[in-house]
C-alpha cells in the first residue's frame, strides 16, 4: 500500500517533462494547403520536419458509399449490389531543405497515392502509387508555424501546378 503513492509521485514528477519534451512531439506538422497534395484543390498533409529532409503524406480526396436493398421479387436471385465502400487519394513526397533557418528553399519529389476498399457483394481492395512529380519551393517560418509555396511539374500527366499553404506543429 505504501508503494502506490511513491509511484504516483514519480509519475507526477516525470509526466510534465514527457509532455513537453521535443522528442515526444516527433517533429510532425499539420499542413493545410491549396494543390497540396498535388492534383487536389485543397488538402491536409502530415509533414515530418527532419534536420534537412522532410517526409510528407497528404490526403486531398475522400469518398464513401453504402448501398443496401431488399430483394423484393422473391425469385431466389439478388439483383441488388449491397456494399459499403471507401476511397482516399493524396500523395507521398520527400523534400530536401537547403537551409534550416526561417527561410528554407527546398526541392521535392513524390507520387500520387490512392487506396480503395469495398465490403459486401463484390468485395475488394486496392492501393496505387502513380502520377510522379518534382518541384521546388520554400518555407517561411519554423515547424511551430510556417507558410510554404512551391511549383510542381507532374510527369504523368504532363502539367504544372503552384501549391501553397500553412502549417502548424502538432
Note the topology.
Blueprint: H1 3-20, H2 22-25, E1 28-34, E2 42-49, E3 53-67, E4 83-97, E5 103-120, E6 124-142, E7 145-154, E8 159-169
Antiparallel strand pairs: 1-2, 1-8, 2-3, 3-4, 4-5, 5-6, 6-7, 7-8
Q: Which consecutive residue ranges, at least 5 long each, have pLDDT under 50?
A: none
- Principal-axes geometry comes out as elongated
Helix percentage range? 10-25%
Top-tier CATH class? Mainly Beta
CATH architecture label name: Beta Barrel
Helix/sheet category: mainly beta
Count of the domains: 1
- Enter the CATH topology name: Porin
Distance between the termini: 39 Å
Determine the strand fraction and express it as a percent band. over 45%
The tally of helices reads: 2
Could you characterize what this model shows?
The model has no long low-confidence stretch (mean pLDDT 84). The two termini are 39 Å apart. This protein has two helices and eight strands, in the order ααββββββββ. It has a single domain, classed as Porin (Beta Barrel). 13% of the residues lie in helices and 61% in strands. The radius of gyration is 23 Å and the shape is elongated. The chain is mainly beta. β4 and β5 form a beta hairpin. Strands 1-2-3-4-5-6-7-8 form an eight-stranded antiparallel beta barrel.
List keywords for this structure.
170 residues; mainly beta; Porin; eight-stranded antiparallel barrel; 2 helices
Quick take:
This protein is mainly β and 170 residues long.
Amino acid at each position: 500500500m505504501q508503494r502506490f503513492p511513491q509511484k504516483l509521485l514519480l509519475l507526477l514528477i516525470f509526466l510534465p517533462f514527457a509532455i513537453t519534451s521535443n522528442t515526444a512531439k516527433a517533429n510532425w506538422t499539420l499542413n493545410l494547403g491549396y494543390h497540396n497534395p498535388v492534383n487536389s484543390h485543397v488538402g491536409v498533409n502530415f509533414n515530418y520536419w527532419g534536420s534537412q529532409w522532410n517526409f510528407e503524406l497528404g490526403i486531398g480526396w475522400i469518398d464513401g458509399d453504402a448501398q443496401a436493398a431488399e430483394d423484393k421479387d422473391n425469385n431466389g436471385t439478388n439483383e441488388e449490389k449491397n456494399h459499403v465502400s471507401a476511397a482516399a487519394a493524396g500523395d507521398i513526397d520527400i523534400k530536401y531543405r537547403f537551409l534550416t533557418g526561417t527561410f528554407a528553399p527546398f526541392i521535392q519529389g513524390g507520387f500520387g497515392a490512392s487506396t480503395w476498399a469495398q465490403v459486401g457483394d463484390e468485395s475488394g481492395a486496392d492501393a496505387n502509387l502513380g502520377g510522379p512529380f518534382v518541384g521546388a519551393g520554400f518555407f517561411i517560418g519554423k515547424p511551430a508555424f510556417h507558410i510554404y509555396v512551391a511549383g510542381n511539374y507532374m510527369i504523368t500527366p504532363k502539367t504544372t501546378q503552384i501549391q501553397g499553404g500553412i502549417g502548424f506543429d502538432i
